[in-house]
Amino acid sequence: MTDPAAPTVTAILLAGSRPVPDPLAQAAGVAAKPLVPVAGIAMIDYPARALVAHPAIARVLILTQSPDLFTGTPATAWLADHPKVAFETSGAGIASSLLALMDRADLPFPLLLTTADHVLLDSAMLDQFIAQATGADIAVAMVERDTLLARYPASRRTWLKFRDGWWSGANIFWFGSAKARPVIALWQDVEQDRKKGWKILAAFGPFALIGAALRLLTLRGGIARIGRRFGLVARLVAMDKAEACIDADKAEDVALIESILASRA
């Protein structure tokens, strides 16, 4: 369980739309990807309910270009009435919107960021992430390939190769203090290439790129080294649950998620 001394957390749930039409939303006939039904329920409903139910999370900010898409849809209208939930209109990009939120006096740190397509997010994942991220200025959740393939050998992810294995992002981030701002500003510069691992590594400097290419770095050590470059504590949270890196990005992901939800039921 989460340490009772853990700080009160503000969760930011990304529910925006990209400039190009989303194939899942088009196939489902809905206005935005977070409204795509997964096992008959809008996908945003799953992470939103996990977040509002967690005792360490004080409030949930849903960041989207169009709050009315959710408040005006019966399946998600409960979000507008929930005492923990508020909507924020996003700007041109995730990083710029996050930097604007950090400037607000009514949003104390720490901030936990996740996405509306993180359908399998649950209390155990949040327990682990919050417990291990607490004390860091910035933390990122990742899943090692063996952890995923041991449970779901057919699942396909985007992997980054390091000395300590192959890693995939789990779409959970921690910003523990204002020291995280320079990293987010860098994220803003490479935001359009966030799926292209080498471009992101190169933005952190040649040592990170060469170290990854030659497998000189462990991911944990590399993240800590990047943190020291920016004068902050940066931390990897290696998630225990394989499901932490399965997001609803493609039709095959939705099919896998629905089978996992059915097995849980």
TrEMBL record:
Please list the coiled coil stretches.
Answer: none
Q: Please give the InterPro entries that the UniProt record associates with this protein.
A: MobA-like_NTP_Trfase, Nucleotide-diphossugar_trans
Listed name of the protein:
4-diphosphocytidyl-2C-methyl-D-erythritol synthase
Regions crossing the membrane = 198-219
State whether keyword Transmembrane applies: yes
Check the UniProt entry and state the signal peptide residues, or none.
none
Is Transmembrane among this UniProt entry's keywords?
yes
Q: Where is the MobA-like NTP transferase domain?
A: 32-146
